[in-house]
Specification:
- By secondary structure, this protein is α/β, with parallel strands linked by helices.
- The protein contains eight helices and seven strands; from the N terminus they run H-E-H-H-E-H-H-E-E-H-H-E-E-E-H.
- The protein is 40% helix and 20% strand.
- A hairpin with a 2-residue loop joins strand 5 and strand 6.
- The longest helix is centred in the N-terminal third of the chain and has 16 residues.
- It is globular.
Length: 184
């Protein structure tokens, strides 16, 4: 699918959210790079892990309205406590494998790729301290020099969190309507 189609649908959802968002709300981008919304921020997951409270403090003071899903997962408890509304914009083109933003130090990225590779020859290789990163991902691999992975999905049952899919699923609505018709 052409990138412009994703960006157009993303902008529609952002416009919808902007009608109800407040100054103490945040938008989380899941499977969406910053570049799709015109931002070109460089994030350091390592810096977030090193100082989570400092990251939250800087995030709040910067009035930044968008964060990546990886950032959210690293400090989700703090985000839920600090913000009144959290909108997770989900790129639902992907079922479980998402494009992953490569904001890792090289040694951490290599350690994660080694950890998620299914070979016995990697069992004796030192992969570094990747424990905090394993709280984000269930899997990670490199394909065509880009990272793809599946997220560890915590229970997000909080009334502050609203998940917004980028693409509406018209076929499910039609299926539901058809099933109701058949039942009456």
């Amino acid at each position: 699918m052409d990138q412009s189609v994703v960006i157009n649908e993303l902008n529609k959802r952002i416009d919808e959210i902007n009608t109800i968002i407040t100054s103490d709300s945040i938008i989380v981008l899941k499977g969406i790079p910053f570049s799709f919304i015109g931002l070109h921020e460089k994030i350091s997951y390592k810096d977030i892990i090193k100082d989570k409270i400092g990251f939250l403090y800087n995030l709040w003071n910067s009035k930044r309205r968008y964060i990546l899903y990886e950032e959210f997962l690293l400090i989700s408890d703090f985000i839920i406590q600090q913000y009144k509304q959290i909108f997770i914009l989900n790129n639902n083109l992907y079922i479980s494998l998402y494009p992953i933003n490569d904001f890792f130090p090289t040694e951490i990225k290599n350690g994660l790729l080694t950890h998620f590779t299914d070979t016995e020859e990697n069992d004796d290789i030192y992969i570094g301290d990747i424990s905090e990163y394993l709280a984000i991902f269930n899997g990670l691999k490199e394909s065509n020099q880009k990272l793809i992975g599946s997220y560890y999905e915590p229970e997000l049952s909080n009334e502050k969190i609203k998940i917004v899919n980028i693409f509406e699923n018209k076929s499910l609505e039609i299926l539901s309507t058809s099933e109701k018709f058949l039942l009456t």
